[in-house]
Amino acid sequence: MERVSRFAAVVFAALSFAPGAALAASGGGMDPVTSLLYQVGNFLLLAIVLFLVARKPVKAYFVGRRDQIKSDLEEAAALLNTAEARQTEIQAKLADLEAQLDEIRATSKQRAEEEGQRILAKAREAAERIKSDALEAADQELLRAKRELREEAAGLAVELAAEILEEQVGDADRQRLLDEFITRVEPRSDNQSRSV
Questions:
Q1: Given 27, 149, 159, 162, which is the most exposed site by the fewest CB atoms within 10 A?
Q2: Please, what's the largest Cα pairwise distance for the chain?
């Protein structure tokens, strides 16, 4: 390939200088039509040499360039398809994420309400228990107070009765009561001793 290129360059250079040399040899007296024909001939020769020499490399360049552009376009299309698929996937995930967030919000709200209801129920139970305990304690305190009042009233009644008896009962009455008591107790003790 390099030989062909060098040969073409030498032929091109020789042909390029040929009309100039012919023009110089003639002393510059060439008619304009002949000069035009030489120039056209040189141009055609240059075009043919360029075509023959540069055809394969230029064709290879443009084929390679076309293949490169085609490959780049296919790669760009594949990347575009991948990007669109990825975008669709991301959009689906975002929509799913929004749905999950809504579900989490709803679940959290429901749990908070349930927790609030549970706390209120426990508070009500505790209040009822405290109320019940307070009522029971009040009842116990009332019973204790009644018992103490009875005991105190009984003690006062005994003291009052003793005072009244001391004031109203004399020695003779005491002797008579003692005798009556003994008389009542003796028949009972005789009955008990007989049954034993």
A1: 27
A2: 200
